[in-house]
């Protein structure tokens, strides 16, 4: 359960960074 949460959090962060790069 803890491993799944960490994996999802890292994947979500990557998506946010990708969206922030073109957004700026």
Automatic annotation (TrEMBL):
Region (Disordered) residue spans: 1-24
UniProt protein name: Uncharacterized protein
Organism of provenance: Bracon brevicornis
């Amino acid at each position: 359960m803890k491993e799944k949460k960490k994996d999802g959090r890292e994947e979500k962060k990557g998506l946010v960074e990708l969206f922030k790069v073109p957004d700026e």
